TrEMBL record, chain A:
One of its GO terms (molecular function) is iron ion binding. The keyword Iron-sulfur applies. Ferredoxins are iron-sulfur proteins that transfer electrons in a wide variety of metabolic reactions. It comes from Nonomuraea dietziae. PANTHER family: FERREDOXIN. The keyword Electron transport applies. This is Ferredoxin. Keywords: 3Fe-4S, Electron transport, Iron, Iron-sulfur, Metal-binding, Transport.
Automatic annotation (TrEMBL), chain B:
It comes from Nonomuraea dietziae. InterPro entries: Cyt_P450, Cyt_P450_B, Cyt_P450_CS, Cyt_P450_sf. PANTHER family: CYTOCHROME P450 YJIB-RELATED (PTHR46696:SF1), P450, PUTATIVE (EUROFUNG)-RELATED (PTHR46696). This is Cytochrome P450. Residues 1-22 are annotated as: Disordered. Belongs to the cytochrome P450 family.
Length: 62, 401
């Protein structure tokens, strides 16, 4: 699994950081998505998929 | 599908004795035609979308605009005067790139981490209000004693609005949100709010403060009008929504003793309980978009210029997405509920709302384990006349130790 994020699309809702906190965070400055681990361990993959589905602005692609 | 289906208004009538269930008509529409012609109060004929899949599709699609000058109001009495472009700063009724510019100035202030840092302060504010209730009890109006002041004080502190102004702000705001207040009164209330926020902004320009509006006043390139309007949007959004979720949420838990017992027995269930209450109660009836071009949606053609209302309660009670949706089940999977919307306008303050509910609801029942209605259920005044559903008052009582 490889994660791509588009910070231009990100609307900073925080759904990814809420859903998969081991893999996603929000920048302290602008609240936009920060990927902590672009190649997450298998045990986090389900949460990452859920985060991508829940992302309101479609900013996460796998 | 008949070509002669008559457009229907947005259903708002709820079955007597079922204060938590969405209007019944929504389930029928969702089952028969999840995109249906809708009659708007101003005479416009647009659409009403009621399935979870289509609601999400509309909210995520940039061909559907949220601009105030393009959308028709789905509920009568909610818009004052003709459709106009949103004033500067009212980013909730704008599209990109204007929406993006404003939103990205604010997103850093409402992150998951930043909102969780407020937990301790929200616990203090909650405890103070529970103390006051206990002193004055054993009866109270839970709306006045608990649900309104807690999120009201939290948003005041966060933005840097003097907390002494909370009650005044709340009264003007509830006039604006009422479907039964006259246009003249709404204009007066809106003017008072605008003047108040503008004075506040000017004060913060002169003497910067360590809060959200103070920070924007010094750091961001915003006019006084933009900043005052942003402040108004955030105050309005922070007040009524969470307040109604707290009161209706408490009422729902009191009415489902098994679920309440599960929550009281397991503190770790609180996050899940908040999500399920958001889904189950869906206090925001819907939101509206306007098609910027012809769009095919669920087998129908939405013409450019037509408004599309998405029903939040209908989507959150769609059996295709949530099994047995009419049952409050704090253990169920709730992922994908659209109580905070979806798409680029998804609620900016949702992480704050989550923390407020997660703190305040368990604390309420820890303090008053035997909390119950002080009147028969049919005497609880429901907010069927407001843009946000809930209760006007919630008379409660408890056993004094």
């Amino acid at each position: 699994m490889r994660i791509d994020v588009d910070r231009g699309r990100c609307c900073g809702a925080g759904m990814c950081a809420l859903t998969a906190p081991e893999v996603f965070d929000q920048s302290e400055d602008d609240g936009l998505v920060v990927v902590l681990d672009a190649a997450p361990a298998p045990e986090h993959e389900a949460a990452v998929r859920r985060a991508a589905t829940l992302c309101p602005s479609g900013a996460i692609t796998l | 599908m008949s070509e002669f289906e008559a457009p229907v208004p947005l259903p708002t009538a709820r079955k007597a004795g079922c204060p938590f269930d969405p209007p019944e008509e929504l389930a029928r529409l969702r089952g028969e035609r999840p995109i249906s012609p809708m009659a708007y109060p101003d005479g416009h004929v647009g659409w009403l979308v009621t399935s979870h899949a289509l609601v999400r599709a509309v909210l995520a699609d940039p061909r559907f605009s949220h601009r105030a000058d393009l959308t028709h109001a789905p509920i009568g009495g909610t818009r004052v005067g003709p459709a106009r472009p949103a004033p500067p700063g009212i980013f909730t009724s704008m599209d990109p790139p204007e929406h993006t510019r404003y939103r990205h100035l604010l997103t850093g202030q409402f992150t998951v981490r930043r909102m969780r840092r407020l937990t301790g302060r929200i616990q203090e504010i909650t405890a103070e209000h529970l103390d006051a209730m206990e002193r004055q009890g054993p009866t109270a109006d839970l709306m006045e004693a608990f649900a309104l002041p807690i999120p009201g004080l939290v948003i005041c502190e966060l933005l840097g609005v003097p907390t002494t102004e909370r009650a005044r702000f709340q009264s003007d705001m509830s006039k604006l949100m009422s479907l039964e207040v006259s246009t003249e009164e709404k204009i007066a209330a809106f003017g008072a709010l605008q003047a108040f926020m503008l004075d506040l902004v000017l004060a913060k320009r002169a003497e910067p403060t360590d809060d959200l509006l103070g920070g924007l006043a010094t750091a961001a390139d915003l006019t006084d009008e933009e900043l005052a309007n942003i402040g108004g949007v955030l105050m309005g959004a922070g007040f009524e929504t969470t307040a109604n979720m707290l009161a209706l949420g408490a009422y729902a838990l009191m009415s489902h003793p098994g679920q309440l017992a599960a929550l009281r027995a397991d503190a770790d269930l609180a996050d899940q309980a908040v999500e399920e209450l958001l889904r189950y109660l869906s206090v925001i009836p819907g939101t509206v978009r306007a098609a910027l071009e012809d769009v095919e949606l669920g087998g129908r053609i939405v013409k450019a210029g037509q408004s599309v209302t998405v029903s939040i309660p209908a989507a959150n009670h769609d059996p295709e997405h949530f099994a047995d949706p009419g049952t409050l089940d704090l253990h169920r999977p709730t992922a994908g509920h659209v109580a905070f919307g979806h798409g680029i306008h998804q609620c900016l303050g949702q992480q704050l709302a989550r923390v407020e509910m997660r703190v305040a609801l368990p604390a309420l029942f820890d303090r008053f384990p035997a909390l119950r209605l002080a009147v028969p259920p049919e005497e609880v005044p429901l907010r069927t006349d407001m843009m946000i559903y809930g209760v006007h008052r919630l008379p409660v009582t408890w056993d004094k130790e």
